Amino acid sequence: MRSTLIAGCLAAGLLAGCGGMDDAVNEQPEPETRVGALANCGGRSYIITFYADPQHITWVGEMTCACEDPYAELIGFQSAYFERWDRAFCQPDPESNEI
Question: What is the mean pLDDT of the chain?
Fold first, then answer.
């Protein structure tokens, strides 16, 4: 009886894993570049740098928007920790009908 109980616990432990870190948990997805799915630049030129930590040490991504671009471009990932640098207000294109 005792050996059956121990064998059952051992089998349950092996099925549940040994408690080590799963490699899939440690894998980070590759940084990506996205354009168009992000917000319109809104007539501004800016750079937002995203970090993994509140101390702004580990870079994880950057979003840029230039006057000539209709949408922002993201390289990497967004996070809650970021710094934003406004570069300029964009002048409207005199040849377009946009205001």
Answer: 73
